[in-house]
Structures are given as structure tokens and as C-alpha cells.
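Why does residue order matter? Because the sequence determines the fold. Keep that principle in mind as you read this record.
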Amino acid sequence: LILRNVGLQDSGKYVCVAFNSLGQATVETELKVWKKLKVAINLDFMVVNTNEKALLNCSISGHPKEKITWLHNGQPIQSNEHNRRVKYLGSSSILSINSISFKDMGTYQCLVENQNGDSDQDSIQLVLGGKD
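Structure:
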């Protein structure tokens, strides 16, 4: 079996069955197709006024994508039920920050990794606007 121009849709189990007058033999193999991860936030910076909401969207392509980590000034951002001001939306690819304040200014990074050792990241600068 020769596969050309392999795509994600070709992932799966393949079975080869050979037989003759003496019997048959079966061999199975699994094909896993990976596509290099690519991350894009699509903005270099975002200006947000005090007490407003910011939504940071991390667009991810590639396969598989297993772990999405958001960092603020190099530190991991925790999102849990006790921290309702900062939340992950969707599959963690969107970071929602309610009631923006001075402490929220800085660089936000979206880092995506998988078990194959592939990773990519992009960043955005959050700037506080002049409105109070």
C-alpha cells in the first residue's frame, strides 16, 4: 500500500489480508498523521480601557493539539471556578479578562504543545487606555 499526498483524513487503522491455498495471514497497522502546529493571535497589541473586558483569541492549526497554556508576562495564568475575572473559553484558545485594571497590562502569550514535541506560540501586548 502506498499513500501519496497524505492528509489528516488518512489517519486510522489499515488491515492487510493475504491468502492462498494454505490459509491466510492478517496484519494491522495504525497510521497517525500529524500536521505542524501554527499559532496566531493576529494582533500585536490591544488597547483596553479600565473596567472593560478583553477577549484574546488564539487561532490554532495543526494536529494534534493537546495543551494550550496562556502566560501573562511569562507566568502561567490560572483559570478556575474561584477566579471568575479571568476565564478560558472554548477549548482554552480564548482568554477572557473582565474588569481590566493596571495589573493586567503586559504581554500575553498563547503556547500550544503536543506529545510529539511540536509547539508554537504567539503573543499580544495589552495596553491600558485612557478612559476610567
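The mean pLDDT is 89.
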